[in-house]
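pasting input
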Amino acid sequence: MQLPIYLDYAATTPVDPRVAKAMAECLTIESNFGNPASRSHQFGWKAEEAVEDARRNVADLINCDPREIVWTSGATEADNLAIKGAAHFYHRKGKHIITSKIEHKAVLDSCRQLEREGYEVTYLDPDSNGLISPETVEKTLRPDTILVSLMHVNNEIGVVNDIEAIGEVTRRNKVIFHVDAAQSAGKLDIDLEKMQVDLMALTAHKLYGPKGIGALYVRRKPRVRIEPQIHGGGHERGMRSGTLATHQIVGMGEAYRIAREEMHEEARRTLALREKLLRGLEDIEEVYVNGDLTHRAPGNLNISFNFVEGESLMMALRELALSSGSACTSASLEPSYVLRALGRNDELAHSSLRISIGRFTTGEDIDYAIERIHYAVAKLRELSPLWDMYKDGVDLDQVQWAAH
Amino acid sequence: MAYSDKVLDHYENPRNVGRLDDSDANVGTGMVGAPACGDVMRLQIKVDGDGVIEDAKFKTYGCGSAIASSSLLTEWVKGRSLDDATQIRNKDIANELGLPPVKIHCSVLAEDAIKAAIADVRKKQGNTEE
């Protein structure tokens, strides 16, 4: 076992060696380095072929037509292109957009920008488990609603929205539906023949591909239109200009091909590891799982240890690479906005850890993590005046705190 | 974030962790911060007949820098008179521990804690003048 142990697969994943090999074959003079847009020689043709193979692999994983895939620099760009692109194209139809309070910043900040441009955005509250129901979406629709943007799997708490049911609502009401699938592609089944999703943001680096490449799915039937956000040589059918990064695209294609072959086996394995982890931590007093446990991506566990502050907990867990919803670990000094939107009080938000498990995690890693977390929580509670008060039967909500 | 060696040392081996009997007239308690803000410090001091701090204990809920600030403070106040201890400034704590700007509030909290503990013990001893 090698320390520190990586348990932050929701942040990013290492590139699979098979992916790295495929990428390395697209760089140097003796390999496939051409510009896929070069039509006049075989260097370009060969690169174009590699790009189109990759496009097919991406399309196959989510069961769509390869012509519906537009390469971008990542899911952030795909979210920007989907939201601003659709809003700008359909603005004559209306200027109302629906999203949720627990979306990724790429979605929230794109919506904020549209608000500055005169659009109106409704930010839905999730239920206490982190889910958005189709009924909530339907109730919020207005005649001038043009776009609904919701994530498939939440990056912090791993909960899974019912995209298929929400897609029925949006399609029936002729509203464009954008889904951020950065955390779900290759982990959960996505079938765009069945799911009435119009736009979907994808990324490579959460799925053992390289950083810096992603894609936007843009539905052809019924046809969805978007205004490009990056202008230039008219690549990607005019939706996203810029020379295609062959090696990145080939890496994403290979990562998605592997995912298609191995995802079910991998999901079973990561789920078993997560269950082992949860069993190992459940016996600690005052432990709370954040977010729905049944509708959840297999590799995610988000858990709060009451009366222990998250940053000091991570300090005690330096052999484990994980993340916390604690304010001290974010630049803004605010605790996780996702946990707060679930109605978790600030203390529990400050006390949370996100542990995400992936392809290279072993049972031994989990055993070690369980042991370290037990030790760290006990040590910090020994230091915690709140733990003392809790043990003395003091109701912390009744205490007049000197806030600062 | 990288921590200084001194912060790490206090975090790994916190000094004077514990509780003093709050019903003792010679014990002053300062509890500052709020759980919602991510840090709460409880600092307690015990004074002898000459008004010298003979013992100090703390417990802190908060980040490593908050724990280190309160741990350091307990070391500093022991053996000092109450008047002397009121002279401790957050800057001294921040400098000693090498706290980055984003963690200065931890040292401010520690200063607030010792002031509150001193005020508490003075009040208990019927001497409310500051």
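fyi Chain B touches chain A through 30 residues (CB under 8 Å).
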